[in-house]
Amino acid sequence: MKIVIPILIGVLALVGFADSMYMTLAHYDVIDAQSLSDSNICTLTDGACEKTLSSSDATTLGIPNAVLGAGYFAAVIGLVSLRLIMGKWIASIPTFAFLIAGFGFSVYLTHQLIFQMHEPCPFCLAAHTVNAFVLGLFAISAHP
Question: Whole-model pTM above 0.85?
Answer without folding.
Answer: yes
